[in-house]
Amino acid sequence: MEHVEPHIQTNDILQQILKLNIVENEAEIMTLLINLRLLLTQSSASQETLANNMEFAHFVQNVVFNPIMRTQQRTLHILTLQVLANSVVNNEKTQAATWQTHGAQIAEQACTSPLGSSNNVLLMIMYNIYLGRCTRLVSEQLVFETCVRLWQAIIEAQTDYNFEYLHFLLEHFIVKDGRACVQCYQRLALVEQRIAFLDYVAHYLRENSPNGEISTMLLLFFAKEFRLKSDCILRETIKLRHELHPREVHTLLRIIASASGTENYAKIYAVDHSLFINVSSLLRCVIAAGKEPNSSVDTPMTKLEEVALTSNIDAGYEERVSFELKTLLVRCTANLLYENEANRGYCLDTQLLPALLECTVMDARNPLMREWSILAIRNACINSPDAQQVIAGLTMQGAAPNDMLSELNLDMGALRITDRQQ
Question: Where does residue 84 rank: exposed (0-12), middle (13-18), buried (19+ CB within 10 A)?
């Protein structure tokens, strides 16, 4: 049997597809697309034959970027997408041709609903072009923003589909190219997009950094951003280069709290003593603000009736920026005090221990705050006679009142203390 070159077979299949009607001959077209998908893996000439066929580009336009096809003829849509994806693998010429013809729509559709395999294949195409042989074809900002928008859509849809190429791309930024990541983050105009990206980083940390450690430059940038913007936690907004939002600062704090407690990243923040001073100062301010009448900072919820379904307290308190705020601040403080002589000294200088002792209560608005505050006090006192002397100068008057514990018949609670010198 006479051998036929793959690119000639590719051209023959393309001509057959273009002669068929999408509605009437869907099954036959799909069979041809499956054969075409395989041929594109066999030679660069086959890829170039497809990329240079303008009639097939029109077919792609009608099948891939048509929202009706995406939902009503999904199998045909996905097969065509896979063919397009195979055509750009390791081929500079086809990458350039494909991006010139379809680039804007690929970026737009990659984060469009309904979410699923279509988004993943579109990101695969973007991934191959951006990190392939034509890195200059696609701007890093476009790739970054497309991924952030898709992550936003995933959060809103609460889908559990595995968008592997989304992770490949975002991990490239946060692990391998911290400098570009910082620049792209700073260019994000919408606060919702900045929060979404930070949420992804927090998610990556929760997964224990599965594909490499986060760039040191990026983590240092987060600390700098937190120091610059943290006072908007106590004020609704302030003006710097952007309109700031407390949720952005809250998510920065969550990242720092998580990273500072891990073996891989703790050393990065251990030497940043200005971060410790900022976090501890903010903790004291939040505690003080919570005591003010008509404060915007929520007071502790220590009664079971306050968290019951019949409570007259807004059930959406877990969605407020103040939820877990003190817990995160105390957690950061505990981590930054661990085996850190300089920060222990700052803890004494700023009289932080009494504030930490005030946090040894159970509070539904701040889960695990009590446990983290005990750890923070422990870390402050280890190898620190001065800190131990501060604690020794306090007199225990018994367990502080805690209605939630009383209702549960638990004999424990926060320490109620006074200064012996008073």
Answer: buried
Q: How many angstroms separate the CA atoms of 61 and 52, rounded?
A: 14
Q: Looking at the structure, tell me whether residues 381 and 246 fall in a common domain.
A: yes
Instruction: Quick: pLDDT tens for 47-61.
Output: 999 999 999 999 999
Residue 414 and residue 373 in contact, taking contact as beta carbons nearer than 8 Å: no
Comparing 92 with 397, the larger pLDDT belongs to 92
Q: Which helix (H) or strand (E) holds 375?
A: helix 369-381
**Beta strands, E only, 18-174:** none
Kindly state the DSSP code that residue 415 receives in the 8-state scheme: E
DSSP SS3 for 322: coil
Please give the share of the chain, as a percent, with pLDDT higher than 90.
72
Residue 19 forms beta bridges with which residues? Answer: none
Summarize pLDDT for 62-92 with one digit per residue, the tens. Answer: 999 999 999 999 999 999 999 999 999 999 9
Burial class (CB in 10 A: 0-12, 13-18, 19+), 91: buried
pLDDT of residue 323: 80
Q: Where are the alpha helices (DSSP H) in 116-190?
A: 117-130, 140-157, 164-171, 178-187
- Whole-angstrom distance, CA of residue 269 vs CA of residue 226: 13
Kindly give, in sequence order, each residue whose CB lies less than 8 Å from that of residue 114, ignoring residues fewer than 6 positions away. Answer: 70, 71
User: What six digits make up the tokens of 2?
Assistant: 């006479």
Cα angle 79-83-88, degrees, rounded to a multiple of 5:
150
What is the pLDDT, as a whole number, of residue 52? 96
At 160, phi and psi to the nearest 5? -105, 15
Contact yes or no for 229/252 (Cβ under 8 A): yes
**Residue 203 sits in the same domain as residue 228:** no
Contact 283, 326 (CB under 8 A): yes
Q: Is the bond preceding residue 114 a cis peptide, omega within 30 degrees?
A: yes
This prediction has a pTM of: 0.86
Q: Are 130 and 176 in contact (CB under 8 A)?
A: no
Q: Which residue range forms the structural domain that includes residue 362?
A: 215-305+316-422
DSSP labels for 331-374?
HHHHHHHTT-HHHHHHHHHTT-HHHHHHT-S--TTSTTHHHHHH
Distance (Å) of CA 236 to CA 189, 241, 249, 322: 19, 16, 12, 12
What mean pLDDT comes out for the span 356-378? Answer: 92
Determine the Cα–Cα distance for residues 235 and 255; give it in Å rounded to an integer: 21
> Structurally, how many domains does the chain consist of?
3
- Is residue 410 situated within a structural domain? yes
